[in-house]
Amino acid sequence: MGGLKFAEVSLLDLNKLHSEWYGWTMKGSPKPEFLKKRVAYYVMGADEWKYADSLEVIAKDKLRCI
To answer: Considering the entire predicted model, what is its pTM?
Structure first.
């Protein structure tokens, strides 16, 4: 995409996530691990998913790095 290369870990199996979400919301199954926090975001370079309780938390964290 635009010359950027994404690591394999960046891919999400959306069919699996949809199935887990429906199981959680309709059948009482455990909450999907990917939804452990309100915000999930992928960090390029580190090639990892990170999680936060809100976008404000991410913004504050990034401002401290400047």
So the answer is: 0.76
- Tell me how long the chain is: 66
Output the pLDDT for position 62: 62
Tokens of 42: 């992928």
Q: Which two tokens stand for residue 44?
A: 């390029």
Cα 5 from Cα 26, distance rounded (Å): 37
Neighbours of 62 (CB within 10 A): 9
E strand residue ranges, 1-66: 39-43, 48-52
Residues forming beta bridges with residue 52, ordered by sequence position? 39
Q: What span, in angstroms and rounded, lies between the C-alpha atoms of 47 and 26?
A: 33
Token match 């999930």: residue?
40
